[in-house]
TrEMBL record:
PANTHER family assigned: ALTERED INHERITANCE OF MITOCHONDRIA PROTEIN 6, HISTONE ACETYLTRANSFERASE RTT109
Species assigned in the record: Basidiobolus ranarum
UniProt cross-references to SMART domains, sorted A to Z: KAT11 (SM01250)
InterPro entries in the record: HAT_RTT109-like (IPR051236), Histone_AcTrfase_Rtt109/CBP (IPR013178), Rtt109 (IPR016849)
Enzyme class: transferase
Protein name: histone acetyltransferase
Key words of the record: Acetylation, DNA damage, Nucleus, Transcription, Transcription regulation, Transferase
Region Disordered: start-end pairs: 61-94, 394-443
Extent of Basic and acidic residues compositional bias: 64-75, 394-404
Lineage, top ranks: Eukaryota, Fungi, Fungi incertae sedis, Zoopagomycota, Entomophthoromycotina
EC number of the protein: 2.3.1.48
Subcellular location: Nucleus
Length: 443
């Protein structure tokens, strides 16, 4: 189950408080193929189905407002009834302020999962395409100061969430050598995605274009640190309008034996763009391909046009990432046994996200309650995670060397060499371990 992989990753995350994870999964539904690839006959037209997942991570706080010393980490929901009067809202906020235990949503992840069956040389091949649609934070998470704790082997909660999902995809979705996965990310900086009005929260850390692209590349690279003997990884990344020589300054990770990154895309430059580039909702590539006179544009020409488009040009930077996973295993993939909700229920939750408010802590608590109630009614069960204890670094004050009582100064040269000032003894020149030359006596 997906919850198991998320729990394993989040257990070693840098969270100051216990975490809760809600996973809502939509039923599979038939959809149009991702590619407008010409087929010689109706029998050879790829069959495609799609589902969406919404994953929310919350913390249970024990105070009305997180302590100022705690750091806030950067990177939907019952209907708000119209008859809710202003006086009722005031009463609601007052009750929140007096309650000591508050659940607040801190992270949200939306992914689209596709399964396409294609006939290749009279054999059916299963291609699983994953599009990480949105990742957002509310800005109300409570996390330790990075400078005060041991961070080795630990990930931020957001990065751990991504790693847990990647691990799930690799272990559960890859079966035989006839299966492969293409995972896509469109990294574009926006003040908010899933948590409405959270951009008004001054504690929310919003990354700029360059920071977000670097964050995603480093986060996707965490899949290479996972133990897997049977899968092969290839990574592609591209920032339209960014010169090749400039991309080195945006490369925050080093390649390793399991995953190396290629600057560019996993398509042939001369292929027609509409035949090989998948078209996802709310994606810059799809919007450009939908324009007129794009039928015969090649892949190379398409990415050249993308670099001067409204979304990727005019000083804006957007990153496109593709992870290709293939398998050499001979066993079948594990059967997915997650509980799915009806498409109507899922769309109601997704739609109501627009009507929530995460602008203040009190509004975040109220919106979290509404969303949690709606998920529970849809039979979504949360899992509770107690992160491993975070080791604290020694305080800087206790680690400082105390000055001598007499006030004399000591200059430390190394762990074994100390030069003391104010010495009046004759100088001794050391030539070696057994040779000492003394100055000749005078008089």
């Amino acid at each position: 189950m997906l919850e198991t992989f998320l729990s394993q990753a989040l257990k070693i995350s840098l969270s100051s408080l216990p975490l809760r994870v809600y996973v809502s999964t939509q039923e599979w539904e038939d959809t149009e193929p991702l590619y407008n690839e010409p087929s010689p006959s109706e029998d050879s037209v790829p069959k495609c189905k799609r589902r969406q997942r919404l994953i929310f991570v919350s913390q249970v706080t024990d105070c009305p407002d997180p302590k100022p010393s705690e750091k806030k980490e950067s990177t939907e929901v019952a209907t708000i009834e119209p008859q809710d009067t202003e006086s009722k809202l005031e009463q609601r906020d007052s009750s929140i302020s007096t309650n000591k235990n508050h659940e607040v949503y801190i992270l949200g992840l939306s992914v689209l999962e596709y399964e396409t069956i294609k006939k290749v040389e009279n054999e059916e091949k299963l291609i699983k395409t994953i599009y990480i649609d949105k990742l957002d934070s509310s800005g109300y998470g409570v996390f330790p100061e990075r400078k005060s704790v041991v961070t080795e082997g630990r990930l931020t909660v957001a990065r751990a969430l991504v790693q847990g999902y990647l691990n799930y995809c690799e272990k559960e979705y890859l079966g035989t050598s006839k299966e492969e996965i293409f995972l896509h990310v469109f990294a574009r900086a926006q003040p908010q995605y899933l948590f409405a009005e959270s951009a008004k929260n001054p504690k929310k850390q919003i990354l700029n274009d360059k920071e977000l692209i670097q964050w995603w590349k480093k986060s996707l690279h965490t899949i290479s640190t996972l133990d897997s003997e049977h899968s092969k990884l290839k990574g592609y990344w591209y920032v339209p309008g960014l010169e090749d020589i400039m991309q080195k300054s945006m490369n925050p990770v080093e390649d390793n034996n399991r995953l190396s990154w290629k600057w560019g895309w996993p398509y042939n430059d001369k292929d027609k763009a509409q035949h090989v580039i998948p078209q996802f909702p709310d994606d810059a590539k799809s919007r450009l391909l939908a324009k007129e006179d794009m039928e015969n544009i090649t892949v190379w020409e398409f990415f050249e046009l993308l670099s001067i488009s409204e979304e990727c040009g005019s000083g804006r930077r957007a990153g496109f990432f593709v992870l290709h996973l293939s398998s050499s295993k001979s066993n079948e993939a594990t059967q997915d046994t997650c509980e799915m909700m009806s498409n109507e229920q899922f769309r109601d939750i997704e739609e109501q996200l627009f009507y929530l408010d995460f602008s203040t802590y009190e509004e975040c608590v109220e919106s979290t309650t509404r969303l949690s109630d709606m998920l529970v009614k849809a039979r979504v069960k949360y899992i509770e995670i107690i992160p491993d204890e975070i080791e604290k670094l020694p305080s800087q004050e206790s680690s400082k060397r105390k000055a001598p009582i007499d006030g004399s100064e000591v200059n430390t040269l190394s762990s074994s060499l100390i030069r003391r000032k104010g010495k009046t003894e004759p100088t001794v020149n050391v030539l070696g371990g057994s040779l000492v030359r003394k100055k000749p006596k005078t008089g």
